[in-house]
Amino acid sequence: MSLVRRCSRTACGRPAVATLTYVYADSTAVLGPLATYAEPHCYDLCAEHAERMTAPRGWDVVRLTDGSAPSRPTGDDLEALANAVREAARPPERATDARGTGTGRPGSGTGETRRGHLRVLRSPDS
Prior knowledge:
Layout lengths: L17 E6 L4 E6 L8 E4 L1 H6 L7 E4 L11 H15 L22 E4 L2 E4 L5
Parallel strand pairs: 2-4
Antiparallel strand pairs: 1-2, 1-3, 5-6
């Protein structure tokens, strides 16, 4: 008897990585991480068959992801990263006091220059 569970699809001998369960009352197919133990009414699938799995017409598919598996970045993640970089590169707004001089900047007079989230400290010698 093998300790590795295999894909339930006919003629597929690859190791199982996901478990498919049908909830007939809700017309829903649930595909999640590999169950702890094999159940008679669940289907173990390999990575390829889990990726290509479709449900009958009119049914919903719920795909549960394993929190330990690394997720792929989405378009929203990349857009958020680009916006954060643009925001960090934007020059800081200068605060002015009543006389109109720029004394409200953090680090003014200390030789500190601020660019986005980075700081450049000048040595006292220069």
